[in-house]
Design a protein that fits this description.
13 helices; ABC transporter involved in vitamin B12 uptake, BtuC; globular
């Protein structure tokens, strides 16, 4: 438990969970799952950029994720089938990234660590980047929380109140790109969206206010991150998928509990 590499893994997982959970609530509220996939899958293009230019991986992934998120935002409202457009972007970015990495013949690379994470290889430098990124995301969400909620509920209401929904949407885009970059080593580009969505979806049936949902989602995300690492250590399974499986288990449990509570409430009201 207290080996240096495992302690670093826990600290990195905690940082990613703190950033991903409240942001994931907006992903759920705004129905941005495909948007998250497109942004996350662009991470492989970022890896190819880093290898081709000798950049550090995380800044390169941030650039690629932000470019993809900006492209997806530009498509919003213009494409008749937005989910189709985002699906095309997501899978095209992933495929293009894999091809680009393969074309860099002079580089030997373990793609599995980028696709599914390699949290046990997190360094102290990675920890610094993870926590700086998490701090930026939390600061942005805390600063613009009410405006983001209003824009999510009704862009027209946000404009009437003096806010700019487009600017707030770009803020979410930037936050999503940051989470993709810092979560790369924790769960990999294929599982980042799951870590965003599952804790928020698990919290949704158990609460009544947005703030309570964000808080409970954070608790679930921390439990999934630390609990998944413990399971991976105990059963010698991949850490990233173990974290997501733990989050999925919490989602199933919370959904069942929410259904039971609603039935009890209805029965009490009927009596």
């Amino acid at each position: 438990m207290f080996d240096d590499f495992f302690l670093r893994a826990n600290i990195a997982a905690l940082g990613v969970a703190l950033a991903a959970a409240p942001l994931g609530c907006f992903v759920v509220w705004r129905r941005m799952a495909y948007f998250g996939d497109a942004t996350a899958h662009a991470g492989i293009l970022g890896i190819a950029l880093a290898l081709a230019t000798d950049m550090p991986p995380m800044p390169a992934v941030l650039i690629a994720a932000l470019a993809m998120a900006s492209a997806a935002t530009a498509l919003a409202g213009r494409a008749r089938a937005m989910d189709t457009a985002l699906g095309v972007l997501a899978h095209s970015a992933l495929a293009a990234g894999l091809v680009a990495v393969a074309l860099l013949g002079h580089v030997r690379l373990d793609l599995m660590s980028y696709l599914f994470g390699d949290i046990l290889a997190v360094t102290r430098g990675d920890l610094l980047i993870v926590w700086i990124g998490a701090g930026l995301v939390l600061a942005l969400l805390g600063w613009r929380w009410n405006a983001l909620l209003t824009a999510t509920l009704s862009p027209d209401l946000a404009r009437a109140g003096g806010s700019a929904p487009g600017r707030d949407a770009f803020g979410l885009t930037l936050a999503l790109a940051i989470v993709v970059a810092v979560a790369l080593k924790v769960v990999g580009v294929l599982l980042i969206t799951a870590l965003l969505i599952l804790p928020a979806a698990a919290a949704r049936p158990l609460v009544r206010t947005p703030e309570a949902m964000a808080l409970l989602a954070t608790v679930f995300a921390i439990g999934a991150a630390l609990g998944g690492l413990q399971l991976a250590f105990a059963f010698d399974t991949p850490a990233g998928p173990s974290i997501v499986c733990t989050a999925a288990g919490l989602f199933v449990t919370a959904t069942g509990l929410g259904t039971a509570l609603r039935r009890i409430t209805r029965a009490g009201a009927a009596d």
